[in-house]
Amino acid sequence: MWNFKFPRTALYVHQASMAYTSADFAKEVLVVPSSFRPGLAILAAALLTTSVALAFNAPLSDEAVREAYFLGQRRDDRTAQFLETYRRYFPVPKSGPHVFVVELFTPYAQAVQASSKHGAGYSAQQARLDYQARGDSLRVGVYVRYTPTYGSGFPYSPNKVPGQTGTWKDFQVRLVLNGEALECRSVRYEGTRMGTGGGKGGGSRSTGFIVWQEYDASNSTSTDATVEVDTPDGQHVVASLDLSRLR
After folding, report:
1. I need a surface site. Which of 26, 160, 195, 225 has the fewest CB within 10 A?
2. Can you say whether the dihedral through the CA atoms of 29, 32, 38, 40 is positive or negative?
3. Is 141's pLDDT higher than 50?
4. 72, 116 Cβ separation under 8 angstroms
5. DSSP letters of 175-235?
6. What is the full DSSP assignment across 106-154?
7. Of the candidates 186, 185, 137, 146, which has an alpha carbon nearest to the alpha carbon of residue 168?
8. pLDDT tens, residue by residue, 205-236
9. Closest CA to 17 of 83, 106, 101
10. Beta strands at 137-145 and 172-177: parallel, antiparallel or unpaired
């Protein structure tokens, strides 16, 4: 079992999402009498209109920041499932590093996640100040796991994993909106580790890393977004997200 020291929400969200499968949704399909269908059609149209109105937007209004604050403060399945919509998961490759999660967080999603990390004493007013301090950005996170064929000591030899250093710097990450690659305004790296012994005195070992990138969101009007990741061994990972369905 992998146990990463990256933001607690990411691991919790994945577990929560797996608890509700497509089979569960299938069990809840209802047979609706024909007399109710016109009303449902109107309701569906209203919901569609609402979903468009709640699509990705920046800057956030005071009301939107407040809503994000309360959603984050719940710190329950609803919070987890909301943040999960901003992530894409990928299977383990036959060899090389495992890009297992790619996420794209809008300013609203960042506000929700930031609020979820604070407990009692964190106010909506402080959430607003924190949002103003962060500014508006699209934040990309690429989570990479080491595998039996790619680890923290790679490349052991030129024949193992292509790349100059075998680190996060060998991974090319791009955010593409409507077919156009954006210029990244900042990038940083965060290592992940797991414990190897019991209790607080136990050791730990490196399990992978996260590449974080931020892009300017103030002038973005695109609805089609993709995050492309090229690994040093030739993998091309693409995560597609529809910003019109995200806040």
Report:
1. 26
2. negative
3. yes
4. yes
5. EEETTEEPPPSEEEEEEEEEE-SSSTT--EEEEEEEEEEEEE-TT---SEEEEEEE-TTS-
6. -HHHHHHHHHHT--TT--HHHHHHHHHHH-SEEEEEEEEE-BTTB-TT-
7. 146
8. 889 999 999 999 876 667 899 999 999 999 99
9. 83
10. unpaired
Backbone angles phi, psi at 101, to 5 degrees: -140, 135
Task: Give tens-digit pLDDT for 152-170.
Answer: 765 444 444 444 456 888 9
pTM here is 0.73
How far apart CA 78 and CA 68 sit, in angstroms, is 12
Residue of 192, 211, 187, 202 whose CA lies nearest to 8: 192
Contact call for residues 13 and 76 (beta carbons, < 8 A): no
Structure tokens at 164: 């100059």
Look at residues 202, 227, 225 and name the one whose alpha carbon lies nearest to residue 213: 227
